[in-house]
């Protein structure tokens, strides 16, 4: 990443972010802990994620320009996010980064940057919400 000013630039700008998002969400949809949290029509979620990650990684403020302040913790509060789900989310992202052939050092930088927010969104330790 030494030759780039931002993670956004290092991953290939908006096109690179889009490729990561396109590799990420099929993994999420197949993951038993994550799939129940997402709508069947995943495309609006993917579009917002690409806008957000662009901004989050130092690119243009695409998300804020369209939707206002991200307020990501508040937006995630309606969903039961456990520590296990945070780790599953990061694992899906790791797979998406690998699939896109990002250098190992850049993958670790991206995952480190995402790890804080992923764990910040944890709002429950309940792992068996389905139990009766």
TrEMBL record:
Family to which the UniProt record says this protein belongs:
Belongs to the truncated hemoglobin family. Group II subfamily.
Its protein name is Globin
InterPro entries, per the entry = GlbO/GLB3-like, Globin-like_sf, Globin/Proto, Hemoglobin_trunc
Look up the domain of life of the source: Bacteria
Q: Which UniProt keywords apply?
A: Heme, Iron, Metal-binding, Transport
Q: Which organism is it from?
A: Paenibacillus sepulcri
Q: Pfam families per the record? A: Bac_globin
Task: Please name the Gene3D superfamilies in this protein's record.
Answer: Globins
Asked if the record carries the keyword Iron, the reply is yes
């Amino acid at each position: 990443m030494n030759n780039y000013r931002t993670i956004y630039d290092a991953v290939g700008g908006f096109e690179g972010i889009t490729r990561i998002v396109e590799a990420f969400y099929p993994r999420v949809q197949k993951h038993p802990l994550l799939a129940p949290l997402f709508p069947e029509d995943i495309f609006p979620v993917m579009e917002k994620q690409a806008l957000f990650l662009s901004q989050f990684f130092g690119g243009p403020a695409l998300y804020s320009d369209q939707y206002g302040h991200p307020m990501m913790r508040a937006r995630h509060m309606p969903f039961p996010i456990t520590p296990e789900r945070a780790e599953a989310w990061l694992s899906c992202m790791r797979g998406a980064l690998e699939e896109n052939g990002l250098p190992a050092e850049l993958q670790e930088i991206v995952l480190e940057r995402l790890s804080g927010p992923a764990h910040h969104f944890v709002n429950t330790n309940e792992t068996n919400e389905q139990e009766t």
